[in-house]
Backbone:
């Protein structure tokens, strides 16, 4: 071995047997030049693997190995504890970023953020936030004036607590912000010839979002008027319906409705 190592990789000289000596691999009592050459090759391989400074910043190779052993112990004690328990679970950042288990979702669900927290939700589009309400009974409409329609007390469906039959029943209130499609229909009882009927859908008692008026009301004929639209609502916004009849025709509960559903968050 080189006396200067680890300053340089050992460069062995060629070894040959004495004249007349023939290498015998089965002879384990004598050392042949071939045996020494094999040892040299192994030394060179080891030194090449370790490099010319195996001790690094340590005083000796032993000291360096002890440092490495300590580092491995630190890694072992600091390694993340696996919170998963079931096939399909995933790891998410819990409180202060600590690893936490999120149980696998159902087939077809997608991973979304809900209030900043990862959650498995129904895939394929926006959540089902929808509501449809009908009049509970005939509504008496004043003549020649726009009147807010009240008495919405028959819910066809309400998936997001958007309507309450007792508190502000004239409104559909948007619990979650987003873009919604909305609309309404007013159905009138028989009236006079050439009457005019109309509907408005108004946001927060101020902004008209959609409206429609029909003329030439035919006497003793059933008639309805509808309107619809798309609007981006904030949580807490609401819509109401106003109706109009020049002659004061009552509004039927049958087929009279107001509705809204989320199309995009």
Residues:
């Amino acid at each position: 071995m080189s006396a200067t190592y680890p300053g340089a990789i050992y460069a062995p000289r060629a070894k040959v047997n004495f004249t007349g000596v023939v290498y015998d691999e089965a002879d384990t009592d004598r050392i042949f030049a071939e045996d020494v050459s094999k040892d040299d090759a192994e030394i060179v391989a080891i030194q090449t693997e370790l490099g010319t400074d195996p001790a690094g910043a340590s005083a000796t190779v032993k000291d360096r190995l002890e440092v490495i052993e300590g580092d491995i112990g630190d890694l072992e004690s600091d390694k993340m504890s696996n919170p998963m328990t079931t096939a399909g679970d995933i790891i998410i950042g819990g409180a202060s970023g600590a690893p936490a288990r999120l149980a696998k979702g159902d087939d077809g669900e997608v991973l979304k953020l809900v209030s900043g927290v990862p959650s498995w939700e129904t895939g394929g589009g926006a959540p089902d936030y929808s509501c449809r309400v009908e009049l509970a009974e005939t509504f008496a409409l004043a003549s020649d004036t726009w009147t807010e329609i009240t008495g919405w007390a028959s819910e066809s469906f309400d998936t997001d607590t958007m309507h309450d039959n007792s508190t502000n029943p004239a409104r559909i209130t948007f619990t979650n912000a987003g873009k919604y499609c909305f609309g309404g229909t007013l159905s009138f009882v028989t009236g006079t010839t050439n009457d005019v009927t109309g509907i408005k859908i108004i946001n927060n008692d101020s902004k008209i979002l959609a409206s429609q008026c029909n003329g030439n009301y035919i006497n003793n004929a059933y008639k309805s008027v509808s309107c619809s639209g798309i609007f981006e609502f904030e949580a807490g916004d609401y819509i109401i319906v106003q109706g109009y009849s020049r002659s004061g025709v009552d509004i039927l509960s049958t087929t009279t409705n107001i509705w809204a559903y989320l199309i995009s968050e």
